[in-house]
Structures are given as structure tokens and as C-alpha cells.
Amino acid sequence: MNDLLTTKQLQDLLKIDRTTVYRMLKDGRLAGVKVGNQWRFPRADVEAQLMGDSFTGAEVTPQTDSPVFSTEVIPLNCIQSIQNMFAEMAGVGSVTTAPDGEPLTEISNCCHFCNLILSSESGRQACIASWRKLAKQSEYRPNFVNCHAGLQYARARIEMNGQLEAMIIAGQFYAQPPDTGEEEARVQHLANKHGLDAQELAEAVQNLPVLDQHKQARIGTWLESVAHTFEEIGHERADMMNRLRNIAEMSKF
């Protein structure tokens, strides 16, 4: 076993986090074997990587007991509290969703304009469809795009062992001051489509913030940090729960 490294030893040697380890396992850049419920990594492969060589690309044993993103692994009250803090500090709206766009949390710091849209069932479904599209983005890092209502939003991926389990989304702002005529037409269209009061919607849109590229970049970085925090909490809690289950099984004998 001296020729095999633990996940923690690998993280320390390569200066990467646990999530990156699982991503490398998934895409074949890292070869690993299972010893009980834990991954182990050939020391020779890791040393070759440190010397600038590539990993051997050997077949990776699939992890059958990968933790999934669930309220059991990460309680929703924990997610909500962190999300609330992030949204307030960043000055944007934020929500955590499943990959299909269905919200897992309440929207934090939601603006009045978006609250009006969401008050309509058709508007809510349009928002979910916009969130769902974010899961299909080819870019891995957050990339701000327009939602169905014309506002900017982006997502950070929340993965468990390399699998997309959820997304944390931030947005509800303009990237630049909108054209007055285009904004009026868009608001009228949204009001007609979702059965909303056009005047109230027009008044609400006037309070939407405009964030420059520098602020957007900062929000994108914060968004990734929050997603990684959720991932780390999930992995730690899943490991703890597995140990508790093993103890419970042992106590039966």
C-alpha cells in the first residue's frame, strides 16, 4: 500500500482540491483504484505528473457509492443561509436549482421586477426554462447571458464526484443601460404574455441595477466559491454519513 496515495495526500502534492481530483478521475487524467470505500492513487503516476509528464490514462474504476446532491447530504437550510449571504453581499438575486432548472431554494434578494414575473405561473415556467439552459452551457466557468426577461444571469456548477448535481445562479441586473424604446417594448410584451400589469412592471424595471464587467467578473468568482463550498460540505457530510452507516452495521453483530 506504500505505492498508493490517499486523496488527501494527492491533494497536498498536486495543490488541488477534492472536487478537482474527482473531475480528473472522471475525464481520465487520473488513474485510481478503490480500497474499500476510499480512492487510492498510484504514486508513480502522481510523481510523473509532478515531473511534467501526463498521467498514464489507465482505466479508472467507477465509483459506485458517489454522494449525490440531496437534502440528506446538504440540508436546504444550510444552502439557503449561504445563498442569502452571498446574494446580499453581491447585490444580486440568487437561487439554487437542479440541472433541469427546478428551484431547490427560495430566491434570495429577489428584485420587485422578477417577483412580478414569478407571480405568474407562465412567468415562473419561463424563468425555469432560462435556468435550465444554463446547465447546457459549454463554458465551465460562469458566463453571464440574457434571460427570457432580458436581464443578465449566470450559473456555477455544483458537482459531486464529477457529476452535475445542481447549480447556483446569480443575476437580475443589466450589463449596460438599456435602450428606452426596446425596454418599453419588452416590458409590454412580458406583461401581455404573462398577464401582468404593464404599468407596475414598467415602474419595477426602472429600479434594476446596471453592473459593469468588473463587477460581473467579481460576482462570477464569488459564485464559483459558493458552489465549491457546497461541494466541500457535501463531500464531508457524505463521508461522515458513510462512516456512521458502517458503525451502525458493525453494531448489529
- Strand content range: 15-25%
Percentage of residues assigned to helices = 40-55%
Helix/strand order: EHHEEHHEHHEEEHHH
Please report the number of helical segments.
Answer: 9
User: Uncertain runs with pLDDT below 50, 5 residues or more?
Assistant: 53-68
Largest sheet: 4 strands, antiparallel
Number of strands: 7
Q: What's the CATH class label of the largest domain? A: Alpha Beta
Gyration radius from CA atoms, angstroms: 22 Å
Structural class: alpha+beta
Give the quaternary arrangement of the chains: single chain
Question: Which key phrases capture this entry?
Answer:
single chain, Beta-Lactamase, three-stranded antiparallel beta sheet, elongated, 15% strand, 2 domains, 253 residues, alpha+beta
3D structure, described in words:
- The protein is an alpha+beta fold.
- Helix content is 49%, strand content 15%.
- The protein is built from 9 helices and 7 strands; from the N terminus they run E-H-H-E-E-H-H-E-H-H-E-E-E-H-H-H.
- The strands form 2 sheets. It has a 4-stranded antiparallel beta sheet. Strands 1-3-2 form a 3-stranded antiparallel beta sheet.
- A hairpin with a 2-residue loop joins strand 2 (33-35) and strand 3 (38-42).
- The radius of gyration is 22 Å and the shape is elongated.
Short description:
The protein has 9 helices and 7 strands, in the order E-H-H-E-E-H-H-E-H-H-E-E-E-H-H-H.
Question: Can you lay out the helices and strands and say which pair or pack?
Answer:
Blueprint: E1 4-6, H1 7-14, H2 18-27, E2 33-35, E3 38-42, H3 43-50, H4 76-90, E4 93-97, H5 112-118, H6 121-134, E5 145-146, E6 152-160, E7 163-173, H7 180-194, H8 198-205, H9 213-250
Antiparallel strand pairs: 1-3, 2-3, 4-7, 5-6, 6-7
